[in-house]
Amino acid sequence: MARLNNGIFGPFTGKIGGVVGSSWRGMPILKMAPKEITKQPSPAQLLQRSKFSFAMGFLNPIKPFLAERFGKMEGSKAPFDLALSYHLKEAIKVEGDLLLMDYPKVCISKGHLRGLEGVTASLQSGNILSLQWENNSDQSFASPGDMLTVVLFVPDVGSFFFFENIALRQDTTVQITLPEEAVGAELHCWGTFVTHTGSRAATSSYFRCQ
After folding, report:
1. Tens digit of pLDDT for each residue in 28-74?
2. Are residues 80 and 96 in the same domain?
3. Strand order of the sheet with strand 27-32?
4. Per-residue pLDDT reduced to its tens digit, 96-119
5. 197: phi > 0 → left, psi -120 to 50 → alpha, else beta; which?
6. In the chain, where does DSSP find H-type helix?
7. Residue where a domain stops, chosen among 82, 107, 132
8. pLDDT score of 164 more than 70
9. Domain of 153: which CATH number?
């Protein structure tokens, strides 16, 4: 219902037919009423919406990390936008009515720095995760002083755990004390190198504990 202000020649607020009266910065304005959407979304559109919500729920807890480590701005797209787009296309599996993360395809960082190579991981007594990798610091886009970051995800509790700058590329091994939530649980791990200035990162590598 529309309402006249200051008589029949004054401005009105509300809706009359296809016109809506309102104000903007103290001035009365008229604009077209928005069209009602009656068409039902297609199954493909519903699936895409579900995948979008699923991906956002997974990535939001690590948004600050992705914002710093998932490449650079591409036009109007920020690094987190690029990460979201990648995971929507590559890292979500559809099994029946379920959406599942394809963990080996999850990527927590992207860049031109040389990544982890020959990585192995094993669980040791005392809830220790032992990690080994090759020293590839003599290769292009690699330096002995590049710093290792490891990210763990525990699906049972839906939590990420970060271990940043815990070793150098040249060290080839490191031991990580697992958080209580990760002990005896399904565990997914990613590792990446960053330069000592933090300005460049490698594309992350996925690994499972043996």
Report:
1. 666 666 666 677 888 889 999 999 999 999 999 999 999 999 988 88
2. yes
3. 3-4, 12-16, 19-24, 27-32
4. 889 999 999 999 999 999 999 999
5. alpha
6. 43-59, 63-69, 79-90
7. 107
8. yes
9. 2.60.40.10
